[in-house]
Amino acid sequence: MSAPLPGSPVMPPVYRQVRWWVLALLFLVTVINFVDRQALSIVAPILREKLNLSVQDYSQIVAGFAFGMLVGEFPMGWLMDRFGVRLILPFAVVWWSIGNGLHALGATKWQFAALRFWLGTGECANFSGGVKVVQQWFPPKERAFAAGVFNGGATIGSIIAPPLLVLITTQLGWQMAFILPSAFGVLWVIAWRAVYREPQRHPHLSSAEAAYITAGTPTDEAEPSNLELLRRKDVWALMLCRMIAGPVPQFYLFWLPEYLYRERGLSLTSIGLFAWIPFLFGDLGSVGGGWLAGKLIQRGWTVSNARKFVMWAGAICCLFGFGVTAAGTAASAIALICVVLLGHYAFSANMFARVSDLTPSAAVSRVTGLTGVSQHISNSGFQLLIGWLVTYFGYGQVFAITAVAPAIAVAILFGLTKHRRE
Question: What is the dihedral of CA 390, 393, 398, 401, to 10 degrees?
């Protein structure tokens, strides 16, 4: 690294660079989000027997969450762009924490479906807010890494959830598996309100770090209207990419414990011991995929080519999903799922970074919300399809669909945006 020019501001040490503290808070809220989100799947074996729920009943409950995400995505994204993430993101966290805690009172299929809908209307804000913060606080060459870190909170939450929630369930009852994690959201809100400001208003942001953040970022982009966004080919490319690939991690998140319990014969305790392992690999993929894209950009690759390379590599890893149901043992099935999630989260870190690459800052939350709407349209239908496929044909077709979806998504994204020069 070259020495700073005489008189130029000196970058403070890493521990005093504000953007990393902001990223730490984004990571933490994403962990909380996915612990809350996964509580249902962990207690599903108990609830299905207690409430006499069929596979299709369970799929309808899970679809309620996807419908909530669908309804909440664009309004939350609009609110983020209009009023800022300092206000709207903590509002969303409180909203979803209340909804999650109320699951403890659920007694019927439709009550749980309604509560999943409530949870989804709040949790969707995590990513529209997170992508906006990453664009505001990080230069283009660091955005994929930053997106990978906060997106990695999803996998860390999924790693923590099985052993934590199984322990809570076995010791305190399934109701507490919803109540206790919800309290962490309220604590996070207090920290966020105390720490977070936008870069231009943050009292502890040095001039050197502020200059570093804005380097290479356009500053003269006009704010597009909602109609103008919907006329842009790159917005539709992003929407279609997330529509096709987005249901993949949702399948593993909500159905992996059920698959291991019903098809592989693992006990609830064994699920707590082993179901977190694939999500550890997902975290490695999320952070590693973002880091790799950043390194390629630093070595002279264009932003587009770096994203494309990592996303194609991730999509190839997802093809290992074809072998899951044919695997001879539960251990080998889990190993294949590890490869799939390693690849998918490397893919998704760059997918979210691609939103900030292609979108003006004033519209990034709305575009993220639009991509979320497209994902949850497909995910709502896919969750219902899973219930039907598993009931009549087994899990093989589901693993096959999720294996090929990311490759189709990458081809569409870069096929529709090849006109852009970067």
Answer: -150
